[in-house]
């Protein structure tokens, strides 16, 4: 046995899961489709508690006229955030946040917020987020645009000032939360960022810089369809988008005198514009450019999104049943990229005295890019016909993520058996000669939350508990491997 540690990928991948364009898809389904965890899962919600319509979802509000666009509503059409003043911490988005963390990933939360809310309102949000570990929070994204509802309520300077205030509150009341500013990007015509003077202090206050950029997009969705008679869509040069994003970071460093992580919080090509095969090829071209670029300037990007009611997803929603997805060509391409070392967390052995392991062992879960695990070698002479892990007695209640040769498996509390055989169902994973494989165990929070030893997590003093969760692995699961069929004899029927 060896203790191992998770550390960041050269470029991390996050996955958008639910928005105004589609419903949330559970993490077990996504894991079965992609065979690997992401760094984080992106959720999108909206918060306008002063509005008379609140908390009705925007698409359900009677406007008194037919909708003229995706954002023709009092507030954005994301699902309502029910924490804050309502205090419904067992509803959305908290149930999804818990599931994401149980499955070994971090929460990337986007909130569009009424920019006239006061500091006391933001304090309530900060307290909501304290138990969710190393959470990333994006507030009022694409804030130099004019399509979101909050831009009709405030000036751009007010929006920038609101972000600075939100950063100050989060850093004080929820220091585990890192703030993402998704603002204007580089403009070749001016050599500057869009509205860079207005948002300069916001850029300085943020923990992470971000932008949203699509390689192609049908922004007229869902009010029209792409045709020669409509103009609400565009397709861009992949290389030009890539350079625009890269120049955005360089300009941010120049005007702020700072160096912070850069992410793209929404990235994809729209299958509506040029079809699903072009969509896949454009995203592959962008990901190939990232891997060939020796500067490694991008910290992470979020693929927007897993399942989409239009054609911005790896799956499109089945119009007969919203719980069913129809896989698109981009999924196979993305899955292959997801498993490449460039986009994968590193798993390395711990050295020195910390490497010594005796059972039971306490393991630390900081997050998907910083966690301790246990590595056990498994020797296989050929591809097995059975490969199962049995969790008995004290092991049964554990919540566990299991990594085997690049594939990830989940064990929920109460689960007694995890079957690793699907790994071998793909021809490329055939065991061609006797080999030793690595089986790794990690223990993310069983209920998806970090808790202090004493007190209420929403009010408790700051401490290590905000950043790290600890659990004990009392023993190893029983490994059952059969390299040949147990029963070879044929019984003939009378």
Could you explain how this protein is built, in words?
The strands form 6 sheets. Strands 1, 18, 19, 20, 22, 23, 25 and 26 form an 8-stranded antiparallel β-sheet that branches. An 8-stranded parallel beta barrel has the order 2-3-5-6-7-10-13-14, surrounded by 4 helices. Helix 4 links the parallel strand 6 and strand 7. It is globular. The protein is an alpha/beta fold and 494 residues long. The protein is built from 9 helices and 27 strands.
Characteristics:
single chain, 494 residues, alpha/beta, 8-stranded antiparallel β-sheet, 8-stranded parallel beta barrel, 27 strands, 28% strand, globular
